[in-house]
Amino acid sequence: MNFLAIGTEIAIALLMLIVLAADLLLPKDVSHRRIGVISMVGLAVILVYTFGQYHIGASPTFFGGLFFVDNYALFFKQLFIIGMLFTILFSLEYTEKLLRYRGEFYVLLLSALLGMCVMASANDFITTFVGLELMTVSFYILVGARMTSEDSSEAAVKYLIVGAASTAVMLYGMSLVYGAAGSLVFSEVCRNIHLFYAAGLAGVIMVIIGFFFKLSVIPFHMWAPDVYQGAPTPVTALLAMGSKAAGIAVFMRILYTAFPILGNFWLPLLAGFAALCMIGGNIMAIRQTDIKRMLAYSSIAQAGYMMVGMAAADLAGMKAVLFYAMLYVFANLGAFAVLTVIDTERGGTSRRDITGLAQAAPLLAAVMTISLLSMAGIPPTAGFAGKLYLFTAVVERGYLWLAFVGFVMSMISVYYYLMVAKAMYRDLTPEEAEYAAPVYVPLTVRAAVLVSVFATLGLGICPEWLASLTNAAVQTFMR
């Protein structure tokens, strides 16, 4: 029992207890903003602590090797913590104005973060399932946290129903894999050739389908647009960043550690679904007028881009996926920070609600534009470097057609991203003069969007630091 191996998870659990105690002990007339600040300070300390856990030798384990703390897991944990930290930073005003149960909101955010971290280190299917359910159940509640909104309640019910169904499929697949392999540990599953038999192969397919639901891969994406649109905007940001990244982290570990002998089966499958996501996600995003719904379809396309790197199934492909996942977090932070302010001040997130934003809040308009251009892969943003790594890795593995599809779809995505920019920067008609009124931008939001812009542009111009970090992460994974 090496408890240092689960130091990050213990720290997050303790922070949850501190936040819960603060919510109970602070006077009711005191602003809950203090609880958000406590959460941010705690997450900042935990983030600094994780950098001291990087190592070169053998990776520490916990509970007989079922919990694996390699650099790969640490990289994703840092990604989750960064995403959570800045989401809380830009959502303080939103939480104070629009949510009823504010203290519980922060506790549930930390609960979801704990589940993500467990998923990143899971080395068997049971630990994976525990982390996945801890994260997902927390999100079920968070999606419905805006009690006065019918859309939020409807989104929570839809997410619960579809999420429960996909969990059932995945769990049944895990049971079939156990029946075929005699173990739930990834490395031991890999050694058992019974996966080639009918029951084992069916279990593998069901596990993959379960993850496709969690990653909103077409045609298992039906929950994402409604849930993204109806959920509170900060929760939508975490669904797009943290939930998807956690799914990618454990999905890659399962494919490369538990099912590598079936690579000839799932590699073409991944390539086909990656192309389907890139094409379908981008085309469906064109018709959307609500920006959160547009970003939901965009996130489906982004999952396709990351699956391009997974289809390479080598060191370069893994590095590209990790690099892209981190820069996608910073791009989303900027976009959703802006949407959170618009939702708070103007009561919606449609294109009409961001009309004239360049006059009302020039900083927010600039940040939104840069974030969207990064998602489209336009230089000199980090999105360009990320997609270049992904497409280069997959071309070297012989999937030239997949890189071509990704390139064409990236160019198509520029159209609907620029439609948002057009709404922000176009001249206002006399009937729209009200949209020129200044929008209040809290200091915390200014800090979050500035970090997002500097990271998005900095990683695009000088990607070497993040590239070296991803290299350290995948080197320990491939041992």
Approximately how much helix is present in the residues? Answer: over 70%
What's the total helix number? 19
Morphology: globular
Report Rg.
Answer: 21 Å
* Proportion of residues in extended strands: under 5%
Mean pLDDT: 83
Q: Low-confidence segments, ≥5 residues, pLDDT <50?
A: none
Largest sheet: 2 strands, antiparallel
Strand order, largest beta sheet: 1-2
Short structural summary:
Helix content is 76%, strand content 1%.
Give structural attributes.
2 strands; two-stranded antiparallel ribbon; mainly alpha; about 475 residues
Could you explain how this protein is built, in words?
The chain is mainly α. It is built from 19 helices and 2 strands. Strands 1-2 form a two-stranded antiparallel ribbon. It starts with 6 loop residues before the first helix and ends with a helix.
